[in-house]
Amino acid sequence: MTDQELFNLLALMKVDGVGDIMGKKLLNSFGDASAIFKAKNSQLAAVDGIGSVLLKNLKDKTVFEKADKELSFIKNNNIQVSFFQEENYPERLKHCIDAPILIFNAGNLDFKNRKIIGIVGTRQITSYGTDFCRKLIEDLAPLDPVIVSGFAYGVDIVAHQAAMDYGLQTIGVLAHGLNQIYPRAHKKYMARMEENGGFITEFWSDSNPDKEKFVRRNRIVAGMTEATIVIESADKGGSLITANMANEYNRDVFAVPGRVTDKYSQGCNNLIKTQKANVLTSAADLVYMLNWDIKEKQKNIQKQLFIELDSDEQKIYDFLQKNGKELLDLIAIACDIPIFKLSGVLIGMELKGVIRPLPGKLFESI
Asked: Are 323 and 176 in contact (CB under 8 A)?
């Protein structure tokens, strides 16, 4: 996209009354933003949804001054811009009707051919939620997923930190422009985030983190990811809005169950109870439900005559050799390994090519 094309798109997005859906209608009808501004009123009026007020707004020349100012900010700060019709735009997000026409990126982002999951939840994360989130990401790390969240307090920042600790790309979706960071306390994480991942937003540089923008931000998290995982949530909150949006986009949703008496498990338990989310108790649940094929990963591991197994892996392998196919729960009992730990061990063994998963949470040795 040339600077002139970006300039015209920015101007179009500043027209009062032209949102993402109407903007896409206009672009589909006229081909590009420049043609929209050159079109006659009769041509514009032929587009469904355009009335006299919007016709007048499309002739407002002040939008070009605003576009020029934003383009200068983009160029001066090395901001990357993704247009929804181009390859550098998140593929799954393209298919959401209300996806942003433009998103602004900072960092080293790669949206191509990746397992991308969103992790959301309460800002008041408990030690249970923290431990689960970190363990989940640790166990998923061999599959190299991209971890997306909102860079907020609580579950968000725990997910980002864990992703960075395990060498995964992580993306913070912001509810404001790239001229600032919110919350300010998280500014210390920015440089590390941008080394392998970074930030995206649909908001211009003059946009502050107003309350309504967080809801709009949530649809990007839900839309660009293969699945949304809710770690902890009260019975109301932004993470539940994200989960509902993910369901509307026909994405998978997972929720971590908790005790019925725990305030920050109520939202997750309700999602599960109303069948709006799958139960998530381990990384193995996610891998199985999303049908992630780790055979491709196995091909990249050098074949060895003798594969080294640690004590837990050897115990599991010997058990499966003796008993054949067995359920996850029975493996845990027989090998005296807690479920939360067992899931990660099994994924590691799959990557080593010594066991394989079967439908119904069964596993067998190879």
From this structure: no
- Please give the pLDDT value at position 306: 55
Ramachandran area for residue 250 (φ above 0: left; ψ -120 to 50: alpha; else beta): left
pLDDT tops 70 at residue 304 = no
Residue keyed to tokens 């986009």: 249
SS (H, E, C) 239-288: HHHHHHHHHHCCCEEEECCCCCCCHHHHHHHHHHHCCCCEECCCHHHHHH
**Joined tokens for residue 69:** 């100012």
Beta partners for residue 327, in sequence order: 362
Choice between 308 and 330, residue whose per-residue pLDDT is larger: 330
Using DSSP bridges, classify how beta strands 326-327 and 278-279 pair: parallel, antiparallel or unpaired.
unpaired
Strand order across the beta sheet in which 326-327 lies: 326-327, 362-365, 355-358
SS (H, E, C) 288-349: HHCCCCCHHHHHCCCCCCCCCCCHHHHHHHHHHHHHCCEEHHHHHHHHCCCHHHHHHHHHHH
Q: Helix, strand or coil for residue 82?
A: strand
User: What would the pLDDT profile of 104-135 be if each residue is shown by its tens digit?
Assistant: 999 999 888 679 999 999 999 999 999 999 99
pTM over 0.90: no
Nearest to 82 by CA among 225, 200, 221: 200
pLDDT at 173: 98
Evaluated on CA atoms 186, 112, 203, 63, the torsion sign reads positive
Classified as helix, coil or strand, 176 is coil
> Which pLDDT does position 300 carry in this prediction?
46
Residue whose pair of structure tokens reads 């997005």 in the numeric block: 13
Element (H, E) at 67: helix 62-76
AA identity, residue 149: S
Helix 328-335 and helix 339-351, axial crossing angle in degrees, nearest 10:
100
Alpha-helical (H) ranges within 80-226 are 91-94, 127-140, 155-165, 190-195, 211-224
